[in-house]
Amino acid sequence: MSATVRLDRLLANMGYGSRREVQGLVRAGRVILDGAPVDDAELRLTVTPALADRLQINGRRLDPPPGMALMLHKPVGVTCSHKEAGALVHDLLPSRWRLREPAISTVGRLDKDTSGLLLLTDDGALLHRIISPRRHVAKRYLATLARPLEGSEGPRFASGDLRLEGEDKPLAPALLEPLSPTRARLTITEGRYHQVRRMFAAVGNHVETLHRDRVGGLDLPADLEPGAWRLMGEAEIAAVFAPNAPTMAAS
Ligand code: URA
Predict the structure, then answer these.
(1) Which domain holds residue 78?
(2) What's the pLDDT score for residue 249?
(3) Do 228 and 114 lie in a common domain?
(4) CATH number of the domain that 112 lies in?
(5) N or C: which end of the chain has fewer CB within 10 A?
(6) Per-residue pLDDT at 196 exceeds 80
C-alpha cells in the first residue's frame, strides 16, 4: 500500500507556503481536488504523479509532486549549484521549486562551460542509482579540441590505464569516436571532476567546447532548446538504464 501524506504538509513541502498559509488557502476554497474545494487541510493523500491531474491550487494545476525527475538542456555559463554566485541551473526552473523539500538536485554536474543534457530529481534513490559507479551509466560528450587528434588517444582512453593528473586510480575504459581532426565523441562511465577536459589534457590536447548529448540510453531531445527543461516520464527514466546503452567498463 502506498504511503499517504497530509495535504497541508505536502503543499508546504512543495513551496506553496507555510502550513498555516496552506491552511488559509484551504479555508479560502483555493485548493480544489477532483473539481471540488477541499474543506479539510489534514486530508491524507497518496502521492503519485497523477495527483497533479487532480489538484488545483489558486486555479492552477499542482506542480509535479515529489518523486519527480526532469531533463534540462544546460546552456553554457550556468552553474550546477544551489547557491553559488552567478547564473544557476535552478534559476531556469520555477522559483517556487527552490523551496521544495526534498530539494531538487542535479544528477552529477556539468561544468559552467559545458552544455547539454542534465538530469535533476528530488528522488534520492533514483539519483544514486544513476550516479552509482557500479551501474556504469554511460555519459556521452561531444568535444571540440584545440589541436588535431594524433590517433593514439583512442587506445589510451580505452586502455583502462590512463591516470588523470594528481590521481592514482586509473580511469575506467572510455570510448573515443573521432568525428574530424578536432572533433570527437567521448563516452565515459565515471564522473570524476572535469573528467573529459582532464582526459584530453592528459594526452596533450585541450577541450575548447564540451557538450553532453546522452546519458545512458537517453538522448538530449533535438527540440529541447538551451535553457529549456521537461519532466521525465517512466519511459525516459527507463532509457537512462536501458540495457543496450553503451557500458564499457568491466564490472
Ligand atoms: N567532463 C568535464 O570535463 N566537464 C563536464 O562538465 C563533464 C565531464
Answers:
(1) 70-133+223-232
(2) 45
(3) yes
(4) 3.30.70.580
(5) N
(6) yes
Residue 241: inside a domain: no
Give residue 209's pLDDT.
Answer: 98
Report the pLDDT averaged over residues 123-136. Answer: 94
CA of 145 to the centre of ligand 1 (A): 14
Taking the centre of ligand 1 as the mean of its atom positions, its distance from the CA of residue 234, in whole angstroms, is: 27
CATH code assigned at 45: 3.10.290.10
Residue 194's CATH number: 3.30.70.1560
Q: What is the pTM of this model?
A: 0.94
Q: Which grid cell sits at 49?
A: 504523479
pLDDT of residue 251: 35
- 80 Cβ inside 6 Å of ligand 1: no
DSSP code per residue over 124-159: HHHHHHHH-GGG---EEEEEEESS---SSHHHHHHS
- In 3D space, the residue among 122, 94, 91 whose CA is nearest the CA of residue 107 turns out to be 122
Q: Please report whether residue 198 resides in a domain.
A: yes
φ, ψ of residue 129 to 5 degrees: the values are -65, -35
- Closest atom of ligand 1 to 212 CA is 7
Q: Is 211 in the pocket of ligand 1 (CB under 6 A)?
A: no
